[in-house]
User: Fold this.
Amino acid sequence: MATSPPPTATGSSKVDAAKAKLAAADPTAPTGLALYSRFAFAGAVCCSVTHGALTPVDVYVMPLSMARDDVNGSLAHALRQLTDIENDDRMPS
Assistant:
């Protein structure tokens, strides 16, 4: 049983014309490996920025959650509590 490819026409001449115009507008647009490598690079940059921004927060808040049992609330509240007890003896180092 042979299958035919799906139709490329949308049924609307205006939509088909717009698709053809967009496809012909930039014949040098990246495709294949070039396109996927750009996506991979963008993902790596976003991951690096996120990891670089949130790891110090995690390093700063984690001792508080291990040292204190009464931590409830937002991240800002936890940071305030941590700076309040920063030199306390109960704080693990």
User: Anything to note?
Assistant: DSSP finds three helices and no strands in the chain. The mean pLDDT is 76. The radius of gyration is 27 Å. The helical segments are 13-25, 33-67, 75-84.
